[in-house]
Structure formats: structure tokens, C-alpha cells
Amino acid sequence: MTAPLRLAAYAIDCPDPRGLAEFYGRLLGWGIDEDQSDESWVELASPEGGVPIAFQADPDFEPPTWPGRERPQMAHLDVRVESLSGGHERALAAGATELPQPSDRLDANFRVYSDPAGHPFCLCAC
């Protein structure tokens, strides 16, 4: 029997890995793991341990056109918050942009934002 595989990182393509890692660091309260980072790959480490979020340089990156489908999002992060209003303020202070809420989900327990590179992400209330 072989050993189980383990997830090493969740990598996100972007034009500025350090800048995007710094944004998510402000949002999540995580720090950059300098030992695992260079100019084209930056890892953000959770203070609780676990799988890091990595940011990989892609000079040709084009952001998704959410909610449009011209360039659909391939994946997105969901960030759990205690309250949508508190999460909203923290996201904006970190540098996020609020995106339109889906019209059929106006009363949902999540809100949609964009990071500085244009990746959509959601804040989800507990």
C-alpha cells in the first residue's frame, strides 16, 4: 500500500505574487513564508498550520469576468466570517472590491468580492 497523497498548496496565478499575497495576508491575518517564496512564487502560511495559499507569477494573466462568462472563474476562495458587515469592512480595508451579488441570492449568507488581481472570492457568514 502506498502512502496517501497530501495537498502541498493551493496556487493562484496572478501578475504580482507578492502584492496578492500581501492582500490575502491582510485579509486573513496570515504571514508570508519567506523561506518558501521568491519573485515568482510566494506562499502565505496560516498561523494555525495546514495547507498554504501560493501565488504564482503569470505575466499573461487575465482575470475572470465574473459575473459574465467571457473568462469564467475556474475556482474561488470562500472565507468564513462571523458577520458579513464586519467581514465587508475588513475586505475593503485590505483592498478588495465589492462585486454584484447574484440577483437570485440577495438574501444569501455570502457576499462576493474581487481581490486586487481580479479573482472573485466570497465572504461567508458562519
From TrEMBL:
<dbReference type="InterPro" id="IPR029068">
    <property type="entry name" value="Glyas_Bleomycin-R_OHBP_Dase"/>
</dbReference>
<dbReference type="InterPro" id="IPR037523">
    <property type="entry name" value="VOC_core"/>
</dbReference>
<dbReference type="InterPro" id="IPR041581">
    <property type="entry name" value="Glyoxalase_6"/>
</dbReference>
<feature type="domain" description="VOC">
    <location>
        <begin position="6"/>
        <end position="126"/>
    </location>
</feature>
<protein>
    <submittedName>
        <fullName>VOC family protein</fullName>
    </submittedName>
</protein>
<dbReference type="Pfam" id="PF18029">
    <property type="entry name" value="Glyoxalase_6"/>
</dbReference>
